[in-house]
Amino acid sequence: MKKFNKWLLGSGLITLMLFLSGCVKTGSDGQPTGEGFVYNYLVQPMSNMITYLVDNFNWNYGWAIVVITIIVRLIILPIGLNQSRKSMIQTEKMQSIKPQIDVIQERLKQATTREEQAEAQAEMQRVYKENNVSMMGGIGCLPLLIQMPIFSALFFAARYTEGISEADFFGINLGQPSIVFVVLAGIAYLIQGYISTIGIPEEQKKTMKSMLIVSPLMIVFMSFQSPAGVALYWVVGGIFSCIQTFITNILLKPRIKAQVAEEMKKNPPKQVVTPIKDVTPTAKETILHEDKSAKGGRNAGKQQRK
């Protein structure tokens, strides 16, 4: 299960990168052609919002990107917090049924036929179902599907909004790659990854280490290949992710752990795994077996004398 969650997160990041790189059609000049649902109904409105803030409030394009990113993140924040909450509840419940799952996994290792494997897998499903635990660990696709188009709209708005390429932000040209923003984006997501490991078991930290490195590296790669306006979007998004992770991992998690512990105390996990049959002979059975053996030996001796 941990390997699957790890694969799911990694494939999600790769999918996001591919989605961001190919969902808006561009012409030979590198500018959007204006075709497609994503551009017309997501990117263009986001771009218009940035232009509106610049034109009506006399803001810098950099500040407009910062404000729009924060507004969008705040709107999506409840979805992210709800997803994290469900995931943590499922994780805590999974710890309570871990002894049963360990027994089944041992049976899977020892299974020599397909029937035995199928029986063990079916038993594992029963354990999850009877204890109201999701085999996915609370990871839902809907929040990701909702957030991805919005994040991509922000990404492309920061990249293609007219005027951004000629604007400066704290002396940095938003139309050219900026190593400063690349480094800041990488640091922000490294910190976010570190915060996400606070308060979790050491065993789980080991499984997360690779993704804690891969995620910032991918952000750095995308930022390095993009104009500073896009890298600024990643920087603000990374800082906001740090805040969101702090809320979920530092503030909410202790409460959720206490809540689940109290719930498990009132309603202990249902014992679904079939107990392993003890085939060790009892003292009485041992005596009877010895008596039979002794009688068998005497009878054999008599037959030989005859």
Automatic annotation (TrEMBL):
List, for all copies, the residue spans of the domain called Membrane insertase YidC/Oxa/ALB C-terminal: 61-249
Q: Which UniProt keywords apply?
A: Cell membrane, Chaperone, Lipoprotein, Membrane, Palmitate, Protein transport, Signal, Transmembrane, Transmembrane helix, Transport
Question: What Pfam families does the database record attribute to this sequence?
Answer: 60KD_IMP
Membrane-spanning intervals of the chain: 61-81, 133-158, 178-195, 207-225, 231-252
Task: Check the record and name the NCBIfam families matching this protein.
Answer: yidC_oxa1_cterm (TIGR03592)
The entry assigns this protein to a family as follows: Belongs to the OXA1/ALB3/YidC family. Type 2 subfamily.
| UniProt-recorded name of the protein | Membrane protein insertase YidC
Biological source species: Enterococcus larvae
Provide the organism lineage as a comma list. Bacteria, Bacillati, Bacillota, Bacilli, Lactobacillales
